[in-house]
Every structure is written in C-alpha cells, then in structure tokens.
Amino acid sequence: MKRLLIENIKVITMEGDYIIPKGYIYIEDNKIVKVKEGVYEGERDNFEVIDGKGCVALPGFINCHTHIPMTLLRGYGEGLPLMRWLNEKIWPFEARLTEEDIYNGALLGIIEMIKSGTTSFVDMYFREDTIAKACRRANIRGFLGSPIIGDMWERQIDETLSLYDEFKEDDLIKIFIAPHSPYTCSFETLKKVGEIARNYKLPIHIHIAETKDEVNIIREKYNKTPFEVCKDAGLYDENKVIAAHCVYLNDDDIIMVKNYDFTVVYNPQSNMKLASGVAPIVKMMENGINVALGTDGASSNNNLNMIDEMKSASLLQKLSFNDATALSAYDTLKLATVNAAKAIGMEDKLGKIKEGFLADIILIDFNKPHLNPPTDIYSNIVYAANGSEIKTVIINGKVVLKDYKLLDIKENETILNANQSFIKVIERL
Ligand SMILES: [Zn+2]
C-alpha cells in the first residue's frame, strides 16, 4: 500500500465552508483516509510526506467543457468573425491533424491544466482513444466523448460504444456520449443518442444554445428552442446531461431543464471572445439548476486555466446582473469543484477533501505577494490568484506535480513536440 501524508496544511474542504486552519491529510493508495486538524501522530514508516507549510489544499479543479487538442490552434486565425474563422482557418487545419498531432496537442493541454490545478476534464474531440493515451501518460482524469455530428452519426455512435468497451474498467478514463449540438445533429440522431445513453448509462456531453444564430436556425427548422428540440427527442429522459454554453435560454427552458439531471457548463471567456453573449447563470442557479465551469478549447479562450476562468465567471455575472453580490467567490469555487463533480456523476467521490473521497488535491502556495494578506481566502483564490501558485498536484493519490515540477513528463519536450506538430500541419495546408 502507498501512503502519503500532507502535513502543516490549511484545508479548504469544500464541505460547506468548513476550513481546517492547520492540519493534515492522510492518503492510502488513491483515497483520502483522514482529514484532520492538528498533527499526525501515527507511525511514519514508508510514508511519502509533503510539508504543506504556507500552502492551502483545495480539491482539484474539474474543467467541464473543453476540446483538448485545440491547444495546437491557440492564437491561430485570430481576429476573424466566427463563420470565416471556422471555414477558412479552424476546419481546414483540423482536417489535416494526424493521430500524432492530436496526442501532442492533448499532452500540451494536459500539462497546462495540471500546472494550473485541474485534475479532471470533460472533453469532446476526434480520436478520444489517442487523447486517453495522453491522459494515462499524465495520470489525469479524462471524461471523453467523441463528437457525433452530421451524416456520419451511426458510425460515430459505434465508435463511442467501442471506446466504452475499451475503457469501462479504467480508473482514470470514463467515456461519455457527445452529440455535437441540436443544430449539427438531426432529430433522429438526437433520439438515437438518448436511447444509447439510457441503455449504456453514458452521460451526454453536448453544446446547446451557444449563439443567437443557433437559436434562429433551430426556430426556423423546428419552431422550437434548442432545449425543446433536445427534450422532444428524449435526450434528457433518465439521462445525465452536461450542456455547454446555454447562453440563450428563456424562462420556460429554465423551468423545463431543472426537472432533469441537467448541468449547464458556463464558459465565460469563450462566450466573451466569440461575442456569443452572457449566460444568465445567476438566474439558473436561483432556479436550482446545477452549474459547472469550463474553459472551452484553447482556440477560443485562449488558455485552459480554471483560476483565470473563475475570475471571469464571477465578474461577468456581477456586471451582467448589475449586482456586486452576484456569484460570490465561494459559489464560483463550487462551480469548479462540487458542482462539477455532480455534473459528471462523481459527487460522492470528487469535488471535496473528505474522508473516503478520491485523492485529487492541489496545494496553492500562499507565499506570494499577490495572495497576501490572506483576509478572505476564497476571494484571494478566485480574484487574486492566476494559476502560477499551484505548487503541488495529486491525482488519484499520485503526486504528478511537486514543487512546481512535473514528475513524469518532460515539459520542454512536450512543448517542442506540439510546436513541431503545428508547423507540420501548416505545411500540409
Ligand atoms: Zn465547445
């Protein structure tokens, strides 16, 4: 058995607002066995010990919506309007990606996420088998869904099911089913996806109502809202649904989706950058809808940093509702931890530092000028931190980042490989 002790540590448990001012976390294999105030007094033979002095422990962040290999497209085709950007830049580039490029882009994104405190992510991209390899290489949790889009949907559903078969016993990888959106999938596709999800108990990861254009296209085709179309296709029935964006939803949509196991993933930076609009998150939360947080892909953000995203998430709601009390720092932190764990069906295993939970823990180094004085610890993390304070990261009981250094992955080599992939794709254009 592997034993890990983190001592001299302040712990934000995310169980209500319970904070342990100074204590320890004792981990056996991949589970948290004890979280307590004071000093660990048991034996210490064969223990790995981390001194948490000056640090704050927090559950690792769960990025609930991204397209991880799109790190390769970071900064590519900037400044174009959405449709020209997609047609002239993004889609031709993506059509030329090889399996090796996807691996290189995924690993680059994964190390960026680990270094900024993310320990799990929900992904939608082609070649999730390859992305799974990068997850295993880095020891990060991946909730992976291969996109189902357009006319090839039957083959894509088969691909999802073979991925499900391959990874159903995996510790770190879980397969989701990922219909791209109600405007890129036919009604028949959405119906079939709902059925398959029910039969195999696969959570659904989808984009809904990202832009006004989408709402108009759906209105013209069905005379309904995007949320109604998905409902009428039976997508929500007995299924767990994780819906990215949800920028445009009306009061009836809100009342409708709250009756289902439905999580909205708020992507504030992507929505601002693409001028999509502001999702009415405060209103959804007031109505009891579960809301989580995502970065979206690096081509529309342009980073995968959840601390950065939390700040935008909170500020944008305050501005949008003209209310300085809207979406507090603590509630924002919940979007990235507790609510996200609920979204992926792991609320009894992830999102809190709690005895019996999986050991996905980050240590934030508070010995930084911009985090002092530590008057309000939640607001310092959400508004003052920037991700560069993540000193140590533990995923599934394994230390993957220690004293700011990745233990198992060569950072420089990963950066070099990704940059070379980018150059090769450009040469193929
Ligand atoms: Zn997306």
Automatic annotation (TrEMBL):
GO terms for molecular function: 5'-methylthioadenosine deaminase activity; metal ion binding; S-adenosylhomocysteine deaminase activity. Its EC number is 3.5.4.28, 3.5.4.31. Residues 57-400 form the Amidohydrolase-related domain. It holds the Pfam family Amidohydro_1. Substrate binds at residues 94, 180, 210, 296. Its cofactor is Zn(2+). Binds 1 zinc ion per subunit. Zn(2+) binds at residues 65, 67, 207, 296. It catalyses: S-methyl-5'-thioadenosine + H2O + H(+) = S-methyl-5'-thioinosine + NH4(+); S-adenosyl-L-homocysteine + H2O + H(+) = S-inosyl-L-homocysteine + NH4(+). Keywords: Hydrolase, Metal-binding, Zinc. PANTHER family: AMIDOHYDROLASE-RELATED DOMAIN-CONTAINING PROTEIN (PTHR43794:SF11), AMINOHYDROLASE SSNA-RELATED (PTHR43794). Belongs to the metallo-dependent hydrolases superfamily. MTA/SAH deaminase family. Catalyzes the deamination of 5-methylthioadenosine and S-adenosyl-L-homocysteine into 5-methylthioinosine and S-inosyl-L-homocysteine, respectively. Is also able to deaminate adenosine. This is 5-methylthioadenosine/S-adenosylhomocysteine deaminase. It comes from Caloramator australicus RC3. The gene is mtaD.
